[in-house]
Each structure stands twice: as structure tokens, then as C-alpha cells.
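User: quick one, sequence for these C-alpha cells?
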């Protein structure tokens, strides 16, 4: 039987509806409006499009948001001053510095300057540590891994006691999702294996997975014979493999493929995320969720 297709587009829309109600409720009962600021240095076209998407989502949910676009030659000292200003601004609950930054700016120093309690991307070392400790300590989960967890849980897959195999060990996807799945509690409590370029017999590890999460950035890396029949497969990879003419606009657009051979894998898996339309739409939504959480924490709302 062909796999159920897990639509990130639909699940993200469902979460945004829930957030919209939560935001309206916060406004009405407590007079609190979640505030998000993005800082974009330069005009990298991909970054401009990501930032625009974040503000569109923030506007739809009724946030207060500031799009602080800065010139390419902004000095590191001036960027740090800007972050300090927003760290102190009580209307701002989430600060996001869009990456990559120009070469003359030390990315690490900049990210470390964000108040960990406003770090809605979850990349500050304090939040990485909080996730490692787990439980209530884990304040802001990084957005892509948090989205993956939501996709699994909302598709009805049981994580407790499941064999979860994660392909990839990056700081933004592989390591945090492995850590999330390892925690005690709902939507986690799994037995976790992480595989990478140093792993022997990767296929054998993947074949054991009840839930297989692939974040390698290698198109078609996971073959259908590596998948356990009935498994839940989350394909995080987004790989540009060519270009095609858009039927809507007539313009050339990239052809995107995941890390899993989707057409063959869907005949074996129990459920699978498509690329695009799987993990991708969840990331911005989880950023919004983190900002709402931050606003509530700052206002002392349970
Ligand atoms: P990354 O930093 O390049 O890390 C890739 C990881 O995969 C590394 O740990 C690497 O192992 C491992 N890997 C690469 N080739 C492998 C192979 N042949 N066999 C086993 N392991 C292999 O990438 P990332 O930032 O985690 O992103 C991964 C993919 O997810 C990319 O396609 C990216 O575009 C996509 N992504 C999507 C979203 C989204 O949809 N919102 C968000 C983030 C990332 P080593 O450590 O041993 O080198």
C-alpha cells in the first residue's frame, strides 16, 4: 500500500490557526502582543525572501514586527549595538539575525549577543544547553527540528519506544532533532541512533528505523531498500537538481529534490514527507510559535 503523504503545508496551516487564536486571546485578556524583529544585513536574494516570508506570517498572526534591514557595509560594532537595543526593548520578544552575515562580521559573536530569552531561533549556546538538559529547561527548540517533531506527532506516529534513526549530525538539524527525540516525555522518549559520513553499514541502521529522519543534503541518498516497511520517513533535505519553467509565471524556477528517493520510498514507507511541502513550511511556523511562547514568558502568562 502506498504511504500516507505527510503534508507540512496542511499541518503548518493548522498550527498557524491555533496560534492566531492564542495571539487574539493574549491581546484580549492580557493586552500582550508578541513582538518579533528581524535584522537583515545586505540584500542576499534568498535571505530577502526568507525575511519577507517571516514578516508575512507574523502579520497574519497579528504580531508587532520590525523588519530592520541594514546595508551590506554595516560594522560588527553597529550590529552589536542594534542587538543590544532590541535586547532591552520590552515590546520585542524575539530577535532573529538572518544568516549568512557578510564576511567582515563574526557570526558567532553576533548570535551570542542575542538575549537567550529572546533567541527564538534557538541557536544561542545557552538554548543548546537547555535543550540538552531537557524538560522544562528546554525553552526554545530550534525551528526545523521542532517542526519535524510536530509532523511526526500530528501524523499519529508513536515516538515512545520507537527506533529513531537520524541521518546527519549538523548543529541546526541532526544533533537537535536527535536530542529532542531522546528526551523523556510526550513526542519523544525514543531510542535514537545518529548516522553520518563516519558510519559503517548506514543502510543496516536505517533499515531498523520506525522513524527515519534524513538531513544530509545529498539528493536520493536513502534508497527504498533502506526503509523498513511501514516506517515514518521525514525527508529534511532540500536539493536544487535543476531548473524548469514555472507553469504559473513562465519564469525559470529551481527543481527541488529531497534526500530520499521519494517515488520508490512511498511504496514501502507507512508515511513520508514530500519535498517541497514537507518540513519546509514548518520552520517559519515554529519560529512564530517560539515568539508567542517568549511573549507569554516575558508577560508571566501561564
Ligand atoms: P549540513 O550542515 O551540510 O550537514 C549534513 C550532515 O549530513 C552532516 O552531518 C554530514 O555528515 C551528513 N552527511 C552528508 N552526506 C552524507 C552521506 N553520504 N552519508 C551519511 N551522512 C552524510 O546540512 P544541514 O544544514 O543539516 O541540512 C541538511 C539538509 O536539510 C540540506 O539539504 C538542507 O538544505 C536541508 N534543510 C532544510 C530545512 C527546511 O526545510 N526548513 C532546514 C534546514 C536544512 P558529517 O558530519 O560526517 O559530514
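Assistant:
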Amino acid at each position: 500500500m502506498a504511504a500516507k503523504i505527510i503534508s507540512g503545508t496542511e499541518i503548518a496551516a493548522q498550527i498557524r490557526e491555533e496560534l492566531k487564536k492564542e495571539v487574539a486571546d493574549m491581546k484580549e485578556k492580557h493586552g500582550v502582543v508578541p513582538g518579533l524583529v528581524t535584522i537583515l544585513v545586505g540584500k542576499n536574494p534568498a535571505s530577502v525572501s526568507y525575511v519577507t516570508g517571516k514578516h508575512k506570517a507574523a502579520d497574519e498572526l497579528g504580531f508587532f514586527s520590525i523588519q530592520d534591514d541594514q546595508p551590506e557595509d554595516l560594522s560588527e560594532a553597529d550590529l552589536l549595538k542594534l542587538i543590544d537595543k532590541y535586547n532591552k526593548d520590552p515590546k520585542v520578544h524575539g530577535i532573529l539575525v538572518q544568516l549568512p552575515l557578510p564576511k567582515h562580521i563574526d557570526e558567532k559573536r553576533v548570535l551570542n549577543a542575542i538575549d537567550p530569552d529572546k533567541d527564538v531561533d534557538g541557536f544561542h549556546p545557552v538554548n543548546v544547553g537547555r535543550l540538552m538538559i531537557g524538560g522544562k529547561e528546554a525553552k526554545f527548540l530550534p525551528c526545523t527540528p521542532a517542526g519535524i517533531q510536530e509532523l511526526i506527532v500530528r501524523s499519529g506516529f508513536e515516538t515512545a519506544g520507537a527506533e529513531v534513526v537520524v541521518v546527519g549530525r549538523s548543529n541546526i538539524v541532526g544533533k537537535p532533532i536527535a536530542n529532542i527525540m531522546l528526551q523523556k516525555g510526550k513526542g519523544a522518549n525514543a531510542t535514537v541512533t545518529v548516522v553520518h559520513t563516519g558510519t559503517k553499514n548506514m543502510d543496516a541502521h536505517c533499515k531498523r528505523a520506525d522513524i527515519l529522519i534524513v538531513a544530509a543534503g545529498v539528493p536520493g541518498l536513502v534508497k527504498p531498500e533502506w526503509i523498513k516497511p511501514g516506517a515514518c520517513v521525514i525527508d529534511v533535505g532540500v536539493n536544487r537538481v535543476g531548473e524548469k519553467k514555472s507553469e504559473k509565471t513562465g519564469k525559470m524556477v529551481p527543481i527541488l529534490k529531497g534526500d530520499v528517493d521519494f517515488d520508490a520510498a512511498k511504496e514501502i514507507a507507512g508515511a513520508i514527507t514530500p519535498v517541497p511541502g514537507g518540513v519546509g513550511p514548518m520552520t517559519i511556523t515554529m519560529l512564530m510559535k517560539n515568539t508567542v511562547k517568549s511573549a507569554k514568558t516575558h508577560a508571566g502568562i501561564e
